Amino acid sequence: xxxxxxxxxxxxxxxxxxxxxxxxxxxxxxxxxxxxxxxxxxxxxxxxxxxxxxxxxxxxxxxxxxxxxxxxxxxxxxxxxxxxxxxxxxxxxxxxxxxxxxxxxxxxxxxxxxxxxxxxxxxxxxx
Length: 127
Known about the structure:
- By secondary structure, the chain is mostly beta strands.
- The protein has a single domain, classed as Jelly Rolls (Sandwich).
- It has 1 helix and 9 strands; from the N terminus they run E-E-E-E-E-E-H-E-E-E.
- The strands form 2 sheets. A 5-stranded antiparallel beta sheet has the order 1-2-9-4-7, with no helix packed on it. A 4-stranded antiparallel beta sheet has the order 3-8-5-6.
- Strand 1 and strand 2 (14-18) form a beta hairpin.
- The longest helix is centred in the middle third of the chain and has 4 residues, at 77-80.
- It is globular and about 35 Å long.
- The relative contact order is 0.37.
- The model is unreliable at 1-8 (pLDDT under 50).
């Protein structure tokens, strides 16, 4: 997991990477952020996965299977397959006013709580 600011480039975006996102919440930011890009990679297997994003300060209020996410991208393995990747761009950005926490789930639905069946790699670009 890494959070890097693109120093010296004239760009103020941050890059957050999780190389094996699971159902345990990770705090991306404890303050307001705007999400511009999401890159997802399902490393192997045919299991479904989902990226769930929460607009919460500090991520402490997030419980997998209980807290409803504010934004979700579902990875349907029967459509996208395994060892595949997808990139999602949001030119106007998606704002998280309080902070941003993320987790992954192995099932679709807002409040499912199982881990993804394979390594689920996530890269976020945000300001």
